[in-house]
From TrEMBL:
The complex is composed of two ATP-binding proteins (PotA), two transmembrane proteins (PotB and PotC) and a solute-binding protein (PotD). Belongs to the ABC transporter superfamily. Spermidine/putrescine importer (TC 3.A.1.11.1) family. NCBIfam families: potA. Keywords: ATP-binding, Cell membrane, Membrane, Nucleotide-binding, Translocase, Transport. The gene is potA. Part of the ABC transporter complex PotABCD involved in spermidine/putrescine import. Responsible for energy coupling to the transport system. GO terms for molecular function: ABC-type putrescine transporter activity; ATP binding; ATP hydrolysis activity. It catalyses: ATP + H2O + polyamine-[polyamine-binding protein]Side 1 = ADP + phosphate + polyamineSide 2 + [polyamine-binding protein]Side 1. The keyword Metal-binding does not apply. This is Spermidine/putrescine import ATP-binding protein PotA.
Length: 360
């Protein structure tokens, strides 16, 4: 188990210091596929470098199974890193690259050979063992980089956007491959990406970061279905934001909240993740949880502002009374097309409990 506690990292600047990490705390469980997700510059790489030992934090602590990692130099930490640039040795063969780290650790020749064979098998590169790494494809190089990092059997593997240099198809294949490698080796993976889809499909849990702090931690489904705040709802998937008045929170914790919408109608939605005062709030509503109805039947009412045809579906942009923009998708199926035009008045229906009250 990795425990990162209140880690800050301040880079001194000529005129102003820059806070790259502003008190980050995360606990990564043994054997977990844990992802750090956030926009460029939010501090993901810096956090990974602190865990790896390439960067020393300004304050805070990092423990692995109770052991103080910060007191150890990088090469003494039972942690290995796979970088975006694979940093393989081009003049060495695939097998030599994989065995390199083990040789540096002075492991016996026989053990090195055995481990290299196992790793070649694990990443399905046995046939290419004797090729130079300059003579294999980008996807194959990434497999070799993974095998090399896994060979010393680290307790934790840190992966810094390892798939971003690959084309779309290969990236999809390697996502499954990484999941398989993690499950087969039982090594804890801490994976950095700014790609929300990658994070949702691969992770056991995700920490969503923004501007040097962790905004929410949870399993993919929880992050998607119950975003805690506007940044998380906006960064992951598509979301509509509408204003409402919070009237009452029913039940503790995971309960529902009663809100009054801009139409004056009351609705039940998901309660916020933390304390929120009654009064004006923002609701996040996923497009797939809303559909168009006659104005009189809608929980929200408004006017069609734009109709965008996409082939498989059509997107309706509706300005809800009160001014919020709401985008709905309507699947184009025979006989189901709604003949709505710009300027038409419409109602929006929302699945019961589908909206989420956001924290400030
Ligand atoms: P990306 O997805 O673009 O790699 P990131 O979330 O990994 O972004 P970091 O590389 O951790 O972001 O950087 C966080 C912030 O810290 C950035 O604004 C970056 O410019 C700054 N930073 C990183 N390293 C240094 C440094 N050595 N000196 C000064 N500022 C730094």
């Amino acid at each position: 188990m990795i425990e990162v506690d209140s880690v800050t990292k301040i880079f001194p600047g000529p005129s102003m210091d820059f806070t790259a990490l502003g008190g980050v705390s995360i606990t990564v469980k043994d054997n977990e596929f844990f992802t750090l997700l956030g926009p460029s510059g939010c501090g993901k790489t810096t956090l990974l470098r602190v865990i790896a030992g390439f960067e020393y934090p300004t304050s805070g602590s990092v423990h692995l199974d109770g052991m103080d990692l910060l007191s150890l130099p990088p090469y003494r930490r039972p942690v290995n890193t796979v970088f975006q640039s694979y940093a393989l040795f081009p003049h060495m063969t695939v097998a030599e690259n994989i065995g390199f780290g083990l040789e540096m650790l002075n492991r016996p020749k026989k053990e090195v050979r055995k481990t290299v064979d196992e790793m070649l098998d694990l990443v399905r590169m046995t046939e290419m063992a004797d090729r130079k790494t300059s003579e294999i494809s980008g996807g194959q190089q990434q497999r070799v980089a993974l095998a090399r990092a896994l060979a010393p059997r680290p307790k934790v593997l840190l992966l810094d956007e390892p798939l971003s240099a690959l084309d779309y198809k290969l990236r999809k294949d390697m996502q499954l491959e990484l999941k398989r490698l993690q499950a087969e080796t039982g090594i804890t993976f801490i994976f950095v990406t700014h790609d929300q889809e990658e994070a949702l499909t691969m992770s056991d849990r995700i920490a969503v970061m923004n501007a040097g702090s962790v905004r929410q931690i949870g399993p993919p489904r929880e992050i998607y279905d119950h975003p805690a705040e506007r940044f998380v709802a906006d960064f992951i998937g598509e979301t509509n934001f509408v204003g409402a008045e919070l009237l009452e929170i029913e039940g503790e914790g995971e309960g529902f909240a009663r809100v009054r919408l801009s139409s004056g109608i009351e609705a039940h939605v998901q309660a916020p993740s933390g304390p929120v005062a009654n009064g004006p709030v923002t609701l996040a509503i996923r497009p797939e949880h809303a559909w168009l109805v006659e104005e009189a039947q809608g929980l929200l009412k408004g006017k069609v502002e734009n109709v965008v045809y996409f082939g498989t579906d059509t997107h309706f942009h509706v300005i809800v009374d009160g001014g919020d923009l709401f985008v709905l998708r309507h699947q184009n199926q025979p006989g189901q097309m709604q003949h709505l035009a710009v300027g038409d008045r419409v109602g929006l229906q929302i699945g019961r409990g589908a909206g989420q009250v956001l924290r400030d």
